[in-house]
Amino acid sequence: MERLDKFISSQTNYSRKDIKDLVKKKQVLVNGEVVLKSDIKVDNLVDKIVVCGEEIIFKKYVYLMLNKPKGYVSASFDKNDKTVIDLVPDIYKHRNLFPAGRLDKDTTGLMIITDDGEFAHNILAPNKHISKTYNVTIDIDMNEDMVLGFKNGVNLSDGECKSASLEITGKNTGIVILTEGRYHQIKRMFGCFGAKVVELERIKMGNFTLPSDLKQGDVREFTKEELESVRS
Ligand code: URA
């Protein structure tokens, strides 16, 4: 059991003061009854709580997918730049959301935003080997040396990379699959072959593919099944 005002403020953008005012205005119902005090105890799994005509469904955590556009940094706050959190709809703003993993400012594509630290840790931990798949365009022709080099483990300044897959899909385009996530990894890997990455888009995490109807800048919640596929 927990206080009604505490529960509502944990699930919405209403402050406790807002809730007090809404109670006064008879806008808060528990199991169909108008509530007279905002500090009564409720069971969020059993009681039906309605505020201004809208049922408040308890969610411990939220899991959002974003199709990241260029120009946004993968952080919760930044002094100079727009962050991926700026793209999250206001209804989630009361939560302590953060991006699970990073994409460079000029990289686009699939990003997970959540307030579940354990989940984020689990999908990012190097020993979990969750693969990340990227569409890449470089400034020179793709070649078989790159394919072999990626497979054997490119040597970067911070050590040898794990074996990665590069599939050539066009003159200067390819699909890269990584099982680790180092700083500027793909850019640095192609740099070892004298190539510059000109476009980079993450299209998959684990077995979950960026939905084709999720446009750049769009955010939506994962379904349970979709979230499972990230980890499988
Ligand atoms: N590799 C990069 O170089 N940049 C990214 O954003 C992701 C992978």
Topology:
Layout: E1 2-3, H1 4-11, H2 16-24, E2 28-30, E3 33-34, E4 41-42, E5 49-51, E6 54-55, E7 63-68, E8 72-73, E9 82-83, E10 98-99, E11 108-114, H3 117-124, E12 132-138, H4 144-152, E13 155-156, E14 159-160, E15 165-170, E16 173-178, H5 185-191, E17 197-205, E18 208-209, E19 219-221, H6 224-231
Parallel strand pairs: 8-9, 11-17
Antiparallel strand pairs: 1-4, 2-3, 2-5, 5-6, 7-11, 7-19, 10-11, 12-16, 12-17, 13-14, 15-16, 17-18
The structure holds uracil.
Q: What do you see in this structure?
A:
- This protein is α+β, with helices and mostly antiparallel strands.
- The protein has 6 helices and 19 strands.
- The protein has helices at residues 4-11, 16-24, 117-124, 144-152, 185-191, 224-231, and strands at 2-3, 28-30, 33-34, 41-42, 49-51, 54-55, 63-68, 72-73, 82-83, 98-99, 108-114, 132-138, 155-156, 159-160, 165-170, 173-178, 197-205, 208-209, 219-221.
- The strands form 5 sheets. Strands 7, 10, 11, 12, 15, 16, 17, 18 and 19 form a 9-stranded mixed β-sheet that branches. A 4-stranded antiparallel β-sheet has the order 3-2-5-6.
- It is elongated and about 75 Å long.
- The two termini are 35 Å apart.
- The model has no long low-confidence stretch (mean pLDDT 96).
- Uracil is lined by residues 103-104, 107, 184-187, 200.
Overall average pLDDT:
96
Name the helicity range.
Answer: 10-25%
Q: Rg from C-alpha positions? A: 22 Å
Instruction: State which percent range the strand residues make up.
Output: 25-35%
Through-space gap between termini: 35 Å
Bound compounds:
uracil
